Structures are given as C-alpha cells and as structure tokens.
Backbone:
C-alpha cells in the first residue's frame, strides 16, 4: 500500500472520474503524490476483473481468448497460461531513446486512473503496483517510439513486463521498484489497450505551454511600454464587439498588468502600433481557447474506460469497439500547436520592433554609444532559428497515415507524434519569449523607463531587471537569454488573473 504519511505535500486521490491535467503534471513532477485510490473505484475495478475472467472462460473475448490484430481469429486455449506474457513480450519492442522520468510517471498516473474507471477488466493488483511506483519514484524504462495513435502498445507492454519482473526499472534515490506480480491472459491486452503515454505527455505539454502563454503577456506588456505603445486596441468596447473568450481574457489581463482602465485614452503620438502589439488579443486569444479545448479533451480521455474490449459490469458483457482511436486528442494537439505558433511569431515581431529607432527613440538594435554597435541584433536571428524549429514541429501530426497488421488496422491518428511535437514546442517557445524579454528590459533601461510602482507590470520589471545583466556594451547574450528563460515560469504568475476580486468581463474566463 502507499506510504501516505511519509512525505509532506499534496495528495491526489484517483477514482477514474475526476483526474485533471494539472494533477497529472503535479504527479509527474513529484510536487504531488498519489493517495490511496478511492475505495468505490477500486471495488469497481475488482468487479470488472472478475467479470472479464468469467466472460473469457465462457466465450470469445478479443485478446483474452483470442490473439490480437490480424490474429484476432486465432483462438487461445484456456490451458495456455503463457499467452498473456507472450503478448507483452512481443509488444514490448519500443525503440529510440528512453523517455524522461516525468513523461513515464505521467503515463503511470493516467493508466492507473483509467483502470479505476472500471472498464478494463484488469487485476486490481496492477493498479496498486502502478500507484506504489508513482509514489516511490520508481518508473519502468520506456523507449520513445512504438505507437501511431491507436494505443501506446509498446510503452505499456514494457510497463507490463516491468511489473512482471522481466523489464528494468529506474529508481530515484531511496526508492524501490514494486515487487513483481503475476500477470495472466486476462491482464496483458487490458493493460496495453490505452493511450496513457500520449495523454500523459499531452498533459505535461499543456501545463508548460499554458505557463508560457501566461508569461508572454507581461513580456509583451514590457515591450509595449518600451516602444510607447497604445492600450487602445485592448479596450473593453473593442473586445465586446467581437467577444471571443480568449481574446477578451488576454486584453483584460494586459490592461490589469499596466493598470489601464477598460476604456483607455487614445494615444498622443502614432495612431496605430504594428501588429505585434495591436493584434495581440486576436492572436493570443485563440491559443488560450485552444488550450481550454485540449484540456477538455484530455480530461475526458484520462477518465475514460477506453480499453478494447470494454468490460461492462452492468451488462455482464464485453463490447468490442474503437474507443482507443485518439483522433480527438490528436486534432486538439495539432490545433493547439498551430495557435501557440502564431503567438511565437508575434513575439519575434515585437523583438524586431524593439530594434527599430522610430519606435524606441534609441539606436538601432538597442546598441550602445560605440560606433555601429550591434546591441541585440543577434537575438532576432536566434529567435528566428527557434521559430523555424517550432514551425517544423507545428505541422499537423494528424496528416500521417499508416496501414498496419495485415490491413486490419488501416487508419492511424498519430496523436502520439502530436504529443511529442507539443512537448518540443515548449523548448522553442521558451527561447523565443526569453529573447524578447532580454530586449524589452534592455530598452526600458536605456530609456530610463519603469512601470508605475505597485502595478503587476512593475513587479515583472523588477524581477527581470534584478537578474539580467545591466551591461549595454556588445557582448555574448547567451547567458542573458538562459536567465530570462528561467524567469518565465515566475512571470507566468503575473500573466494569469489570480486575484478573486479581479473583475470578470463578458466573454472572459
């Protein structure tokens, strides 16, 4: 059982119905630990296992009394006790690099919760072993490639062999792998018929990209201050005229960061700013909305009994189906990446604006007094390179196609690829925003501008200025960007409305 008294910190109770993406991220990062599973859910899983055993003993049930894939017509005799282990051994052929610990832990959390939904018909000892591993810090070695969006078969087969004592574990200091458990013919397919790895990776990517989207608002607001830009595009009447929720939320938060009223006064200087500033709500908003859509999809998936076949306790039946097909997640991931890419392009546009004397009233590229100083010129190139990488991984994974298992499985969602692409997006987006932050703080320093004290934007500036090198002479900026990248998670707190008293507007979250 779990050692719930051993560690301080938040505990997450899994019950197969109410796991959230933020919980998955916390369990994966070990900022939270699993509590004992909900007793009713555990009893439901146990009844599902007993039902599955009866059904397999008295009729044909895919993967239990038959083979899988194109071997579905092959009957497996009741006396063939090795069928389950053979299935795990044959499917545990994932290739590529071993996955990071947090991605495997996210998979364990998702799979344990799905099993508690009660449709898998899997031995309850597997749930206990998964939660014990998640609590202790042990995780099986899982390789990267082995799925096409119709179930993370190879990764979960490796997990099954680890549970049976035939595959290695990686253990955190002081942690121990769960004791091996016996798996029979009724456990193998029931364990691997899931997209748990894809869903876990998706939850991690969503969690980080939401933080970066939040951080991008104070970064953009600092850039807007540095160029003397207008808040008129973020006015409440503008947002009411086309009330998309994400756009309204972004505009409201930008106004709150700078202490701007709902109806800002028109600017005294130029009539309109470049798109990088003026269109921020219209470009940032779709990313916020896409994040909410992905979150809703993932919440359904991680609390679903999607195993094939579905073991129905109520009907005492095994239903063969296609709920393992991950089109909802794959398409939501593709949409989200494309939406975040637009905000990254906007960040590079603001970075370019910060190098423009007509906007900053400073020397080109924020150079110092030395002749032909290059200042932050190279940051445009660096951010452009990161944007190119981000654009590459934003290509829709759902455009992929595969025909497998002798033509029986003639379609694939490639949601598994979409999840990995979304994780890689995090790295490139963080680098791009960091380049903008370095330039924005430099411009504000050179103009001797600071936000009014007491405003959230002033807090953002103080935090950034407190850690970024103040030297203006031409020098390598690699370390500056690395420091700024590390600061973004802290700035994300300022980019989200956290004060319950902050007024909500129509169409706002």
Residues:
């Amino acid at each position: 059982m779990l050692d719930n008294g051993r560690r301080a910190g938040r505990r997450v109770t899994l019950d197969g119905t109410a796991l959230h993406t933020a919980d998955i991220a916390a369990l994966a990062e070990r900022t939270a630990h699993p509590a004992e599973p909900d007793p009713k859910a555990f009893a439901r899983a146990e009844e599902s296992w007993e039902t599955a055993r009866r059904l397999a003993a008295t009729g044909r049930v895919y993967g239990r009394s038959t083979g899988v894939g194109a071997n579905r017509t092959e009957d497996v005799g009741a006396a063939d006790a090795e069928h389950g282990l053979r299935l795990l051994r044959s499917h545990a052929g994932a290739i590529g690099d071993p996955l990071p610990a947090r991605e495997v832990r996210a998979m364990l959390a998702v799979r344990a919760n799905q099993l508690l939904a009660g449709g898998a018909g899997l031995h309850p000892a597997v749930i206990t072993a998964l939660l014990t591993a998640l609590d202790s810090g042990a995780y099986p070695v899982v390789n990267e490639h082995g799925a096409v969006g119709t179930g993370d078969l190879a990764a979960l087969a490796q997990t099954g062999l680890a549970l049976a004592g035939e595959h290695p574990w990686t253990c955190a200091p002081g942690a121990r792998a769960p004791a091996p458990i016996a798996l029979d013919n009724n456990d193998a397919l029931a364990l691997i018929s899931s997209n748990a790895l894809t869903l876990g990776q998706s939850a991690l990517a969503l969690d980080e990209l939401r933080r970066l989207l939040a951080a991008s608002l104070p970064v953009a607001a600092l850039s807007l201050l540095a160029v003397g830009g207008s808040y008129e595009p973020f006015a409440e009447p503008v947002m009411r005229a086309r009330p998309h929720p994400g756009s309204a939320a972004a505009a409201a938060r930008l106004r709150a960061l700078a202490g701007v009223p709902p109806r800002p006064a028109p600017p005294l200087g130029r009539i309109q700013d470049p798109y990088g500033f003026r269109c921020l709500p219209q470009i940032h908003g779709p990313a916020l909305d896409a994040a909410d859509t992905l979150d809703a999809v993932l919440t359904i998936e991680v609390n679903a009994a999607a195993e094939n076949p579905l073991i129905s306790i109520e009907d005492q039946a095994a239903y063969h189906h296609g709920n393992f097909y991950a089109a909802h997640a794959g398409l939501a991931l593709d949409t989200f990446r494309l939406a975040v890419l637009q905000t990254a392009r906007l960040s590079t546009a603001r970075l370019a604006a910060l190098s423009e004397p007509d906007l900053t009233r400073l020397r080109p590229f924020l150079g110092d007094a030395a002749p032909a100083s290059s200042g932050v010129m190279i940051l445009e190139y660096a951010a452009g390179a990161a944007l190119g990488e981000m654009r590459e991984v934003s290509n829709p994974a759902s455009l992929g196609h595969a025909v497998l298992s002798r033509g029986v499985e003639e379609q694939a969602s490639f949601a598994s690829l979409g999840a990995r692409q979304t994780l890689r997006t995090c790295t490139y987006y963080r680098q791009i925003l960091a380049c903008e932050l370095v330039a924005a703080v430099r411009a504000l320093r050179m103009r001797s501008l600071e936000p009014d004290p007491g405003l959230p934007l002033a807090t953002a500036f103080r935090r950034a200025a407190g850690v970024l090198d103040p030297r203006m002479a031409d020098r390598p900026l690699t370390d500056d960007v690395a420091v700024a990248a590390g600061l973004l998670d802290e700035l994300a707190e300022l980019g989200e409305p956290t004060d319950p008293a902050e007024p909500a507007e129509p169409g706002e979250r």
